[in-house]
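A quick aside before the break. I want you to see a complete sequence-to-structure record at least once, exactly as it would be stored in a machine-readable document. Don't worry about memorizing anything.
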Amino acid sequence: MKKKKRGFSLSELVVTLVMVAILAIIGLPIYRGYVKKGIATEGKALLGEINAAQQIYYTRHGQYYAGSVGQTFGGAFGVDARRNKYFTSYNLSTNAQTFTASTSSKDGTQSLTLVGSFTTDPKLIER
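That is the input. The structure line, written in tokens, reads:
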């Protein structure tokens, strides 16, 4: 009576490991790209909120709000970035008819800048 063989041969295991390694080599950069886009979405949402608040402030006061550099909550301005996971602060600068809002991710890998005015569409710059 012959015993039944159980398990996998060494060649079967090697082939399986090679296939998994190839999938990982292809998949990890794609996955990292999706993660980076997802993180950038949070920053874009923050800048969109800042843009809306600036437009409202301009309508009410005839000028853009110029808060403290690096501020995370703007009292009269009302945009709070502390609830975000990746983009937790922003900087504002203004001149007569335009404003610039910038934010960077906590790890410093992504930087977003929004330049807006009351008469033109805002421009988003990603770095």
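Two observations worth writing down. The first strand starts at residue 91 and ends at 94. The chain has one helix and four strands. We'll return to this after the break.
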